[in-house]
Amino acid sequence: MTKEDSQHLEAIQDIRNMMRKSTRFLSLSGLSGVFAGIYALIGAALAQQYISTHQENYRYDFMSDRNYSVFERSPFYMYMISIAAGVLLLSIVTAYYFSNRKAKRQGQTLFDHTALRALVNLCLPLMAGGVFCLALLYHGTIGYIAPAMLLFYGMALINTSKYTYNDIRYLGLCQIVLGLVNAFDLGNGLIYWAIGFGILHIAYGTSMWFKYERKEEARN
What CA–CA distances, in Å, run from 114 to 18, 105, 119, 165? Predict the structure, then answer.
């Protein structure tokens, strides 16, 4: 290969990279996934601790033929909602911090048109899933909430993968499979929730960091 051919190939590669950056949100940091997984595991541990101290009520909800409304089990439900909201808030703040740091390191702005497009495609399934989970909570069918969260989250990730890293698609597929398995094993929803939002996030984030960010951080 001549020097001129090499220069042509480099130019083509640069053009491809520019086109890829203009159509995909590439500032998503793997570290945000790792921390989100850690937050989820801490939340699951807090939830399990609460459940252990209220074991009879928790078991009765599942073993009874009757579904209890949110008003009849409000202390239990509100505690679980608080944990989920705390995990979500911490995950969002952490994702913003690490993604914004990565965007600045790459000389880009975080909220460009590709980021907004990815965010819209992520939020639409998540909002639908959130409303559906609130309906399940209202009717007292709490056993279905964990698989519903995993399923809708998985669909949201797959929907978003078209506008960011393709790796997210595989995380979404794993979440969907986990949610479907959980749908046939309702009594262990917290375990599946911890695996999906905790362990899988840590594994995904670690993989993303080694694949896309380790060399970049080493140069800086």
Answer: 13, 17, 9, 12
Q: What are phi and psi of 141, to 5 degrees?
A: -90, 65
Question: What whole-number distance in Å separates Cα of residue 195 and Cα of residue 20?
Answer: 32
Instruction: Quote the crossing angle between the two packed helices 145-160 and 167-183, to the nearest 10°.
Output: 160
CA-to-CA distance for 157 and 166, rounded, in angstroms?
10
- What is residue 141's three-state secondary structure? coil
Separation of first and last alpha carbons in the chain: 32
Could you report the per-residue pLDDT of 150-206, keeping only the tens digit for each?
A: 999 999 999 988 888 888 999 999 999 999 999 999 888 899 999 999 999 999 999
Find how far residue 42's CA is from the centre of its chain.
15
Which residue shows structure tokens 């949110």?
Answer: 70
The answer to whether 129 and 156 have CB atoms below 8 angstroms apart is yes
Transcribe 74-105 into DSSP letters: HHHHHHHHHHHHHHHHHHHHHHHHHHHHHHHH
Cβ pair 200, 175 in contact under 8 A: yes
Tokens of 193: 């929730």
- Among the listed residues 120, 127, 170, the one whose alpha carbon sits nearest the alpha carbon of residue 149: 127
